[in-house]
Amino acid sequence: MHLSQQSSTMIFLSGLVGFLLVLTAEARVGNSSQLTFCSETEQCLLFDLICKTDKYEARHYDSVKWVSTEETSFFMEMASMRAFRRLFEYITGANEDGKKIAMTAPVIVKIPNKKFWETAVFTMSFLLPMEHQNNPPKPTDDKVHIHDMPALTVYGQSYGGWMTSMADKNNAYSLSSALDSVQANYKKDFHYAVGYNSPMTMFNRHNEVWFVTDDDPECPSSEELEFSPFS
């Protein structure tokens, strides 16, 4: 093969690999039909299921962009009301392009480990849809910002009903107890409260609590699964 042909082939292959990488990155925000519990929005955050026990799942999430805001309060409910309103204004046009942005799921709240009587900074985030992952509109509210969350592996536990401070606390305690019993390494200074439903949804609600792993996931008494996109 001539040198020029080799160069052309290499350029083609490099371009193809780059194209596939872009597709893979974008595909992590995908069609909601690929998750049975994410049915109220057209796009949802997708993950690879690593392993599963009767107490929790270990999942891998690729790096994606969120729009986020912080709010200080004693309780998650009070912080969430103000933060949700701010983020909802962003997706309904309070951005420099004046664009309306589709709602996605889940909505996550980063909750620091705190005493009941202490105030804390809660961070709420809306997942940006696939079409805005590369170049999201800039917020006009200086309390709202675009957040690049790195790839992460989490331990997750699901529960129904309403995502209240008490429900979140109880499920976070349940998950942390299960993880401590198998000596799993995870970040204990915060966790995520994760919701998949509109505030107007009355039944069949799906919530989760996540702890971020600090090491390879521990899944005793379960089979480690092959990485399977859109699990």
From TrEMBL:
Q: Tell whether Cytoplasm is among the UniProt keywords.
A: yes
Would the keyword Signal turn up in this protein's UniProt record? yes
Q: Where is the signal peptide?
A: 1-27
Quote the subcellular location field of this record. Cytoplasm
Give the main location: cytoplasm
Q: Which GO terms describe its molecular function?
A: heme binding
Superkingdom of the source species: Eukaryota
Q: Which InterPro entries match?
A: Reg_factor_effector_dom_sf (IPR011256), SOUL_heme-bd (IPR006917)
Which UniProt key words apply to this protein? Cytoplasm, Signal
GO CC terms: cytoplasm
Spans through the membrane:
none
Quaternary context: Monomer.
Query: Which family is it part of?
Result: Belongs to the HEBP family.
Q: What does this protein do?
A: May bind free porphyrinogens that may be present in the cell and thus facilitate removal of these potentially toxic compound. Binds with a high affinity to one molecule of heme or porphyrins. It binds metalloporphyrins, free porphyrins and N-methylprotoporphyrin with similar affinities.
What is the name attached to this protein's record? Heme-binding protein 1
- Species of origin reads Dicentrarchus labrax (European seabass)
Gene transcribed to yield this protein: soul5
